[in-house]
Design goal:
Number of strands: 14
Helix content: 40-55%
Length: 608
């Protein structure tokens, strides 16, 4: 088991770095959690890559076709680089693997026209090494505590693995899984970890608000779930370590593991490590059978390619959740990284898989990168009233503009309240109908206009654009169908009598959908323009910009240079190979959103 007690020799070797902390190991270990980690002997990128490879091999894994190497080791801080898998020089000598597979994952690689010789095994990792809830309850030191926490619904299975990562990270060199834990980046590049300056690169996009909300949500989870559970776990670990004290008349070799409360940075690190690395493993050929979420050390070093993945992972040696007795390899349950025979990567080439057909928005939010050539990218639009600060759907009508200033303010407030109430009704109706909260549009506008969009997208747009009275009718009919037990026809007739208008025609629904789409695109475009400095604040607020210096004057040129230096030109940054990874990923994502928004705005203006 990966988290069994280390041997006495290994523990004694691990104790070398902790002798100085013997007098007060708790305080010394807690302090070490707050200091920025420094590069130590044996912790340089290539040393850590070799260390984790040796650890995998010692625990039953095989790496016949790959080497583990750091990615961008020279550019990233020693503690922040990631690992990758690269084809070994012997990769072309590999023979096709056996066909006793239970299921496959990361599809999209083996298609029509591929060679039929079968896959070759590039790497194989025993399922026993996977970080799962099962590994948590089998942990020798705190397994019973994990079981109790999950049985009491204090934490779920995902949270258990996150806490396991934190616990083993705190144990440092005393952890039997230390080489693997040290190979996980100390800082992730997802928006959750962005600084205030880095977050400005997402301004004007969905991810800017999503990351802010994610931080708030995780802070609540940390206070209400993770810290109480962590206190119990670290208490159990302390008791386990105390039971093993007495060597040389002193404390447990290496001191005690810190029992300080889980910090915000620790929890965010574990959260990102889990969501960016976990796989959903099928436990048999039955597609309806439940899967197991797991982090598989070694396999999780395979990076993503949107365009040309050259490998995939697969669970083998498992039938209906149990070891396959007919598995010819005799290797037991395992996760294998497979390449196609005759089309394996060239020696030294990176071995990459597909994480799925994900948009850049999802890739950046979960994994911390975006791909300019992503064929699966899409434009995600929020309802216009979500973007609008006051929930307004538009300007005051002409009649309102003619009233006095004081009356206009009063009416605008009343209008806002009415529109906000209508939007709450739209949200209720959306949930009744099971429609998405946002619409996802293909990167390229369909030639057929609305007819080329997904049905649920069109229905959602119709809901966004319905007039208040039409919305009232639809909501009344939906409630009558669900709660009063009326047929759809009876419910609609009752709604028409109650509201005093007929159901929206096909033409009215189409006009509502088009109007909502244009409003959403306008709101998204305005938000991007304001964020990237392409529209002055005065113009954004409806006021005429003050007269500037004369065109061509030195003052005008200086002002233009200053404005350009302050503005993020995302397209330029996205194409810059020397741009910092976080800045570049944000620029790739936001420039893609701006490009798709402009294209849809131009096309939707011509749709009828």
């Amino acid at each position: 088991a990966p988290f069994a007690v280390a041997s006495l020799a290994a523990a004694a070797a691990a104790a070398t770095g902790y002798v100085a902390a013997a007098r007060d190991p708790v305080r010394a270990d807690a302090a070490s959690q707050t200091r920025k980690p420094k590069a130590a002997v044996g912790s340089l990128p290539y040393d850590r890559a070799q260390s984790v490879a040796d650890w995998l091999l010692a625990n039953g894994a095989t790496l016949p076709g790959v080497h583990i190497r750091p990615v961008d080791a020279g550019r990233a801080h020693v503690e922040e680089h990631g690992m990758g898998l690269y084809a070994s020089k012997d990769v072309h000598a590999l023979e096709p693997a056996s066909s006793s597979s239970s299921s496959s994952g990361g599809g999209g690689f083996f298609g029509a026209g591929r060679a039929q010789a079968g896959p070759v095994t590039l790497a194989s990792v025993p399922l026993a090494l996977a970080l799962t809830s099962k590994a948590c309850v089998e942990h020798e030191a705190v397994g019973e505590c994990f079981r109790s926490l999950m049985d009491d619904d204090v934490i779920d299975e995902r949270m258990a693995v996150m806490l396991l990562l934190i616990l083993e990270r705190r144990r440092g060199a005393r952890s039997p899984a230390a080489p693997y834990v040290e190979a996980i980046p100390a800082r992730f590049r997802t928006p959750l970890h962005y600084s205030d300056d880095e977050s400005r690169g997402l301004a004007g996009t969905n991810l800017h608000d999503a990351a802010s909300q994610q931080r708030k949500t995780l802070d609540v989870v940390l206070r209400e779930r993770a810290r109480p559970a962590g206190a119990r776990l670290f208490g159990a670990l302390r008791a386990w370590e105390r039971a093993r004290r007495g060597w040389f008349g002193r404390t447990f070799v290496g001191g005690f593991t810190s029992s300080a409360k889980i910090s915000e940075d620790e929890f965010r690190w574990a959260y990102s490590a889990y969501w960016s690395r976990a796989l959903s493993l099928p436990m048999g050929d039955d597609p309806t059978a439940p899967t197991v979420e797991a982090i598989v050390p070694g396999i999780d070093f395979a990076n993503h390619s949107c365009v040309a993945p050259n490998a995939r992972w697969e669970v083998r040696g498992v039938v209906r959740g149990a070891p396959d007795p007919s598995d010819p390899s005799g290797s037991g349950p395992r996760v294998e990284l497979l390449g196609e025979f005759g089309a394996t990567p060239a020696p030294g080439e990176e071995v990459v898989i597909s994480y799925g057909d994900k948009t850049n928005e999802e890739l950046l939010f979960v994994h911390g990168f975006a791909d300019r050539d992503n064929p699966h990218d899409a434009l995600v639009l929020q309802p216009p009233w979500v973007i609008d600060e006051f929930g307004e759907g538009g300007d005051l009508n002409d009649g309102m503009k003619k009233v006095s200033s004081r009356s206009a303010k009063e009416l605008s407030k009343e209008t806002r309240e009415l529109r906000m109430e209508a939007n709450r009704s739209r949200e209720a109706l959306r949930k009744f109908k099971g429609l998405p909260a946002q619409v996802v549009l293909p990167a390229v506008p369909p030639a057929r206009g609305l007819a080329g969009l997904d049905d649920d997208v069109v229905k959602t747009l119709e809901l966004w654009g319905l007039s208040p009275r039409a919305l009232e009718l639809e909501l009344h009919a939906e409630v009558a169908t669900r709660l009063a037990g009326l047929s759809e026809r009876e419910a609609r007739e009752d709604a028409e009598r109650t509201v005093g208008r007929s159901s929206p025609t096909v033409a009215e629904r189409r006009a509502a959908a088009l109007g909502a789409l244009r409003d959403a695109l306008d709101a998204q475009g305005a938000r991007l323009e304001a964020a990237t400095g392409l529209r002055k604040n005065d113009e954004k607020n409806g006021r005429k910009a003050p007269r500037g210096p004369a065109a061509g004057s030195r003052a005008a040129i200086a002002a233009a240079v200053k404005a350009a230096s302050e503005r993020r030109v995302d397209e330029v940054v996205a194409a810059d190979p020397l741009a910092p990874p976080v800045v570049k990923a944000a620029a790739v994502y936001r420039s893609g959103v701006a490009r798709m928004t402009r294209r849809y705005a131009n096309e939707a203006a011509r749709w009828k």
